[in-house]
Amino acid sequence: MRIDTQRFGTLQLQTDQLFLFPQGLIGMESLRHWALLPDQENPSVAWLQSASRGDRAIALISPRAFFSDYRVRISRRELGCLHLKPGAELYVMTTVSGHVGKLSTNLRSPILVNLSRRLGCQVIADASQPIQQPLSISSQRKQTVADLVRRAA
């Protein structure tokens, strides 16, 4: 599959490299197939690139890499779309917005990914979590989203 993107140029991907988001993402419900790509310049960042819209790419981070006390509570019903088996790894990522020098991440609406089934969903979690949590992307972190992307490939 060929995807002409604004951010990454032309990508050649196999359909088995894509993640299915059965309900889409908040505000982009009709976009259901996404590629998870590493950021070549910053290993703390990854991108969700829409397979059907080359102009839709979303920056992601692993929130626990930046906020070690971050916890998200999700109901079994919300997790149902991921078809998790006992012991399966669930990855939690959050979207990044803003511009260099003033970045924030949305801790209230994390993106959940089941790598083994290549399924994802975005949920609205705990209302006490901020929608725009300031973020210092240059900080050294133990866990990076780039590691997740390499494992998903």
UniProtKB/TrEMBL annotation:
<keyword id="KW-0282">Flagellum</keyword>
<protein>
    <recommendedName>
        <fullName>Flagellar assembly factor FliW</fullName>
    </recommendedName>
</protein>
<keyword id="KW-1005">Bacterial flagellum biogenesis</keyword>
<dbReference type="GO" id="GO:0044780">
    <property type="term" value="P:bacterial-type flagellum assembly"/>
</dbReference>
<keyword id="KW-0969">Cilium</keyword>
<dbReference type="InterPro" id="IPR024046">
    <property type="entry name" value="Flagellar_assmbl_FliW_dom_sf"/>
</dbReference>
<comment type="similarity">
    <text>Belongs to the FliW family.</text>
</comment>
<keyword id="KW-0143">Chaperone</keyword>
<keyword id="KW-0810">Translation regulation</keyword>
<keyword id="KW-0963">Cytoplasm</keyword>
<dbReference type="InterPro" id="IPR003775">
    <property type="entry name" value="Flagellar_assembly_factor_FliW"/>
</dbReference>
<dbReference type="Pfam" id="PF02623">
    <property type="entry name" value="FliW"/>
</dbReference>
<dbReference type="GO" id="GO:0005737">
    <property type="term" value="C:cytoplasm"/>
</dbReference>
<comment type="function">
    <text>Acts as an anti-CsrA protein, binds CsrA and prevents it from repressing translation of its target genes, one of which is flagellin. Binds to flagellin and participates in the assembly of the flagellum.</text>
</comment>
<keyword id="KW-0966">Cell projection</keyword>
<comment type="subunit">
    <text>Interacts with translational regulator CsrA and flagellin(s).</text>
</comment>
<dbReference type="GO" id="GO:0006417">
    <property type="term" value="P:regulation of translation"/>
</dbReference>
